[in-house]
Amino acid sequence: MDRMLYVAMSGAKQAMEQQASVANNMANASTPGFRAQINSFRAVPVAGGAEAPTRAYVVATTPGADFSHGPLTETGRALDVAIHGDGWLAVQTPDGGEAYTRVGNLQVNAEGQLTTMGSLPVAGDAGALVVPPGSTVAIAANGLVTARGAGDPAIGIAEVGRLKLVNPPVADLVRGADGLFRMREGLAPAEPDAAVTVTTGAVEGSNVNGVEAMVAMIANARSFEMQMKSMRSADENAQSANKLLAYG
Questions:
Q1: Burial grade of 108 (CB within 10 A; 0-12, 13-18, 19 or more)
Q2: pLDDT digit string, tens, across residues 147-198
Q3: Is residue 76 located within the same domain as residue 160?
Q4: Backbone angles phi, psi at 86, to 5 degrees
Q5: Are residues 195 and 90 in the same domain?
Q6: Domain tally for the chain?
Q7: Cβ–Cβ < 8 Å for 174, 181
Q8: CA pseudo-torsion sign 100, 102, 107, 112
Q9: For 62-112, how does the pLDDT look when each residue is reduced to its tens digit (9 = 90+)?
Q10: Is 124 in the same domain as 149?
Q11: 56 and 82 belong to one structural domain
Q12: pTM of the full predicted structure?
């Protein structure tokens, strides 16, 4: 009887955790550059006791991500960039580290620094990218950032720097709680990759499929309900067994 409870209890817990991930994906279906979260689970025998190997429960592994590309939306905005194919845009995190994102709707802050809409400084090959005040910014396909002041001739365009575009193996990346990706612990920051290019005047959308996420939410809800029914059945069977033992 307790084996039935172990299976039902761990199954219900897994369904709840999976539902939370699917709900998060659904909530970010329209978030630029979002990568859908994928949870993996495995069965593990309960430790201790001679009969423990016959009892198992579900544990979650490190959440992964769906690295498929999202759709591109043309915006015509000069500071919007979308990674073409595989690759990532490097940004500086508040703790001084480096993280990677596919979100390319950029802006110039009050200090003239090129940042994401989340106010994270965009990393350049040689450090931060700072634009002269009042300049018109343009970003080339290879990530080169140029600025031209009001009234300056075309030959007076100044090179601000180059976006740090990287393409590390996805197996070396982990998602943080802030939605940004970082290199696994112990690995050095990714090196710039000249093969990574960007499309200017466009942003990449979320790779979450709204229909698939909705179907997954329904399936998880039904799975949770089934596990709860199994727990109630185990309780009813235990009560019936106790009555038989009491009056047998």
A1: middle
A2: 887 666 666 678 889 999 999 999 999 988 888 999 999 999 999 999 999 9
A3: yes
A4: -80, 150
A5: yes
A6: 2
A7: yes
A8: positive
A9: 567 889 999 999 999 999 999 999 999 999 999 889 999 999 999 999 889
A10: yes
A11: no
A12: 0.77
Which domain does 29 fall in, by range? 2-67+208-247
Gap between the Cα atoms of 159 and 152, Å rounded: 14
Backbone angles phi, psi at 137, to 5 degrees: -100, 140
Structure tokens at 111: 């200090």
Residue 141 has phi, psi (to 5 degrees) of: -65, -30
Joined together, the tokens standing for residue 98 give 């480096």
* Residue corresponding to tokens 């990393």: 123
The residue whose two tokens read 């996420």 is 213
Phi, psi of 219 (to 5 degrees): -65, -40
- Contact (CB, 8 A) for 216 and 22: yes
Given a contact cutoff of 8 angstroms between Cβ atoms, the answer to whether 83 and 73 are in contact is no
Around 171, how many Cα atoms within 13 Å sit in the side-chain half-sphere?
0
Instruction: Scan for tokens 């430790």, then name that residue.
Output: 47
Q: What is the DSSP letter of 78?
A: T
Q: Quick one: 213 and 176 in the same domain?
A: no
